[in-house]
C-alpha cells in the first residue's frame, strides 16, 4: 500500500475538485485556480524527484551532451562524425543535433503554435480528447492515463503523422495543421538521415550491400511469424522511409508543488529515435551513469534519444535511456517530441548481422500491437516494456 508522509490537510480547491475533473488535464486544474497539488498527483516520498537515490551526488549535473554537427556529417569529416555518433549512442543514448538544416522559423513556429493550442479554451481542446490509443489525434493528460497509479503534471496532444491523419488534426489555431505538417515532414527527413548514419555507425552499411533491389512488402511478407523479408541494408532503409511517425506536443503548466510530482515519470521511448524540441524552460533529465542529469535547452537544436526499437535492432549495442521531466512552479513549458519507427504493422527484430556466438539474440521479435497490448495492461514506466521483450536466457 502507498503511504504518504504528508498528512497535513490539503485544504484548498485542490481537494474539492470532484469526480473526473482531473481527466480534463492539469491545465484545466490550474485554470480552476488550485494552489496545491491534488492527492492523485502526489508521489510516495521515496519516488519524488529529490528523493530518488540517483540525485544524491551532484558532480555530473552539468554534463554536456555530445553534440552532433549534422552539416559535418555530409562533409569532409564524415568518418569522424560517425565515430562521435557511435560513441554518443553507446555511452549516452542521447545527443544534441545542431546545424540540422531545419529553419529557425519552422522550429519557433512549431513551439509557438503548440503553445497556442494549449491556450485555447478547454471546449476547443477537448474535442480531441480520447483514451483510445489507436486514435489518429489524441488530447490527454498524465503519462499512461488509464494505468497511472499516480498522475503526472503534463497534458499532451498526440498526432499520428500520415496524410490520412492530417485532416483530423486540430483546425484551431488556424495555422496549426500547416505548421504541424511542415514540421513533421522536416523532422522525418532529419530522422531518416540520422538513422542512415546510425546504421553506418553499427557497421551495417558496408556488410549489407550485396542485394541492391529492395523488395516490396507483398513480395517479402511482413508478418512476425512468417516473414521471409530479406534483412539487408536497402530494405531497412526503405522500411525506415515508410515508417511510422508520432508527434507529441507536451504542455507542462506551472505546478504549485513541483517537489511532489513529475511532469513526466522515468520512461524510455518506444521507437527507433525521438527528436525532441524543447522551449527555453528547463525540465528534461536523463539517467546517465545512475545520476539524473538536466539537459539544458539549447536554442535551435534537437535532443535526440535512442528508443526501445533501436535497442532491439542493435541487439543491445545501443540502449534506450530513461528520461523524465521535472515540473516547476514558475513557468509553463512546451516540448514537441517526434517518435519514429518502422510502420505500425512491421516487426522489429535484432539485426541478424549483430547476432553471433558472443552476442546471441537478446530480444524477442516485437511489433506495435505488442506495445499497445503492454501499455493497456501493464505499467509502462521505466523500461518495463523493453524488459518484457528480453529473452530470458540472456542475463546481461
Ligand atoms: O518534454 C520533454 O522534455 C520530454 C518528453 C518526452 O520524454 C516524451 O514525450 O516522450
Ligand atoms: Fe520520452
UniProtKB/TrEMBL annotation:
It comes from the Eukaryota. Residues 1-21, 209-230 are annotated as: Disordered. GO terms for molecular function: metal ion binding; oxidoreductase activity, acting on paired donors, with incorporation or reduction of molecular oxygen. GO terms for cellular component: cytoplasm; nucleus. PROSITE patterns: FE2OG_OXY. Gene3D superfamilies: B-lactam Antibiotic, Isopenicillin N Synthase, Chain (2.60.120.330). Keywords: Cytoplasm, Iron, Metal-binding, Nucleus, Oxidoreductase. Pfam families: 2OG-FeII_Oxy (PF03171), DIOX_N (PF14226). It is found in: Cytoplasm; Nucleus. Residues 8-21 have a biased composition (Basic and acidic residues). Residues 242-342 form the Fe2OG dioxygenase domain. Belongs to the iron/ascorbate-dependent oxidoreductase family. Involved in the regulation of shoot development and salicylic acid (SA) homeostasis. This is Fe2OG dioxygenase domain-containing protein. The lineage of its organism: Eukaryota, Viridiplantae, Streptophyta, Embryophyta, Tracheophyta.
Amino acid at each position: 500500500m502507498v503511504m504518504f508522509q504528508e498528512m497535513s490537510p490539503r485544504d484548498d480547491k485542490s481537494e474539492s475538485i470532484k469526480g473526473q475533473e482531473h481527466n480534463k488535464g492539469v491545465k484545466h486544474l490550474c485554470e480552476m485556480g488550485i494552489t496545491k497539488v491534488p492527492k492523485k498527483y502526489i508521489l510516495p516520498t521515496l519516488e519524488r524527484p529529490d528523493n530518488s537515490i540517483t540525485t544524491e551526488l551532484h558532480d555530473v549535473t552539468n554534463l554536456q551532451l555530445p553534440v552532433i554537427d549534422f552539416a559535418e556529417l555530409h562533409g569532409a569529416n564524415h568518418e569522424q562524425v560517425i565515430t562521435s555518433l557511435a560513441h554518443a549512442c553507446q555511452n549516452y543514448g542521447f545527443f544534441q543535433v545542431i546545424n540540422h538544416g531545419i529553419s529557425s522559423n519552422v522550429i519557433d513556429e512549431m513551439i509557438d503554435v503548440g503553445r497556442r493550442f494549449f491556450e485555447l479554451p478547454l471546449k476547443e481542446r477537448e474535442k480531441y480528447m480520447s483514451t483510445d490509443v489507436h486514435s489518429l489525434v489524441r488530447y490527454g493528460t498524465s503519462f499512461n492515463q488509464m494505468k497511472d497509479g499516480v498522475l503526472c503534471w503534463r497534458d499532451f496532444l498526440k498526432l499520428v503523422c500520415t496524410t490520412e491523419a492530417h485532416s483530423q488534426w486540430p483546425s484551431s489555431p488556424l495555422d496549426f495543421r500547416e505548421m504541424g505538417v511542415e514540421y513533421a515532414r522536416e523532422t522525418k527527413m532529419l530522422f531518416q538521415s540520422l538513422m542512415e548514419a546510425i546504421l553506418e555507425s553499427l557497421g551495417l552499411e558496408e556488410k549489407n550491400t550485396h542485394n541492391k533491389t529492395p523488395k516490396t512488402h507483398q513480395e517479402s511478407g511482413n508478418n512476425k511469424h512468417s516473414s521471409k523479408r530479406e534483412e539487408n541494408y536497402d530494405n531497412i532503409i526503405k522500411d525506415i522511409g515508410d515508417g511510422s511517425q508520432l508527434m507529441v506536443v507536451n504542455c507542462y503548466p506551472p505546478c504549485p508543488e513541483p517537489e511532489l510530482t513529475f511532469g513526466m515519470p522515468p520512461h524510455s521511448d518506444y521507437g527507433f529515435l525521438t527528436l525532441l524540441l524543447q522551449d527555453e524552460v528547463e525540465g528534461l533529465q536523463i539517467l546517465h551513469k545512475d545520476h539524473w542529469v538536466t539537459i539544458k535547452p539549447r536554442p535551435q537544436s534537437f535532443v535526440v534519444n535512442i528508443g526501445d526499437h533501436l535497442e532491439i535492432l542493435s541487439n543491445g549495442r545501443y540502449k534506450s535511456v530513461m528520461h523524465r521531466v521535472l515540473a516547476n512552479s514558475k513557468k509553463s513549458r512546451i516540448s514537441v517530441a517526434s517518435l519514429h519507427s518502422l510502420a505500425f504493422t512491421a516487426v522489429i527484430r535484432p539485426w541478424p548481422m549483430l547476432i553471433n556466438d558472443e552476442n546471441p539474440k537478446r530480444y524477442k521479435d516485437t511489433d506495435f500491437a505488442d506495445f499497445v497490448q503492454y501499455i493497456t495492461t501493464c505499467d509502462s514506466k521505466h523500461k518495463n516494456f523493453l524488459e518484457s521483450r528480453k529473452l530470458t536466457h540472456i542475463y546481461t
